[in-house]
Amino acid sequence: MSDVQTDPSATGEQPRPVDDRRHPIGSGVSYAGSGVSIAAAERAVELMKPYAEKTRRPEVLDGLGGFAALFKVPLHRYRDPVLASSSDGVGTKSVIAQALDVHDTIGIDLVAMVVDDLVASGAEPLFLQDYIACGQVVPERIAAIVAGIAEGCRLAGCSLVGGETAEHPGIMAAADYDLAAMAVGVVEADAILGRDRVRPGDVVIGMQSSGLHSNGYSMVRHVLLDIARLRLEGHVEEFGRTLGEELLVPCRVYALECLRLARETDVHAYAHITGGGLAGNLARVVPDGLTARLDRRSWTPLPVFGYIAGHGRVPREEMEKAFNMGIGMACVLPAADVDRAMAVLTARHVPSVVLGTVERSGPDDPRVVLEGEHPRF
Q1: CA 357, CA 291: separation in Å to the nearest integer?
Q2: Which of 65, 184, 253, 316 is the most exposed place for a label (fewest CB within 10 A)?
Q3: How far apart are the first and last CA of the chain?
């Protein structure tokens, strides 16, 4: 985020002038003429700085502009610290943002995809770095993207410490961009969450999503834009807004809520529900010999999921593979802690439901079973 690629070849060898009619000495070939604007990149960095500054934690030792970000790990706070790292992107949801020329929320999606993977292990996100590849640096557009990234970091309690903006003329169209990020967190070794803690009798709580989050957009675009030929600017009564506005609703960032829940209850595992759906991701934290048995009747998917299924005649099993279906994070914990957990999530304004329980199973049984039918889906 803080730096811009300027000379990828950088061999250190001085170029030799060519004196002929095709390439006269001093003919004026420039980096800008190749499609890369250093001035625009510098302007973008200046516009980014106030947003990054708002996310600054006391452990950050330097501002933007250096070759590396410096973060002093507060080791005195931990007995046996373990670093956790995660990286991700936003996929083809960025295509919707580009089509609508709306860029100030896609950064929230980027942060959510990364930090909510981190927190699934019990780790507190410390800092995040982004990578923005674009066809042309438009300073105001880059700044809007970074404003969203900074807002996501604020929601997650981590610092945006820098990154990279790379201009790729000739490879990407001028208005195109792609986003990725990497974050680092820390967790006590004896507090790492996961399948080793899950026990028979545990209960699975589902935290509701804000919508599609950032998965399944290749199917979304194929069904709604290619097959149904709907317009992003068109109003959809079921949503109470335009189709484009619904598709750009940013991910819910669960990091702080998950950390609070882990402090106040005996959380055994989290599953961040992304590509692969509820069953596919929850299965990653269910150990051998156990099955999480969930009831679809316990929650109602948001209208956008039925809208996609209806327009594309998408089978339920395909919907459940591609989308979160309304549950963005799952929490596994003892039955005795359920009431307290629900109270914590309610206080944090995270709508949640009890999805089911974990039980013993045979060696050939699936790790996750979904039963029943969603109401009104």
Answers
A1: 8
A2: 65
A3: 42
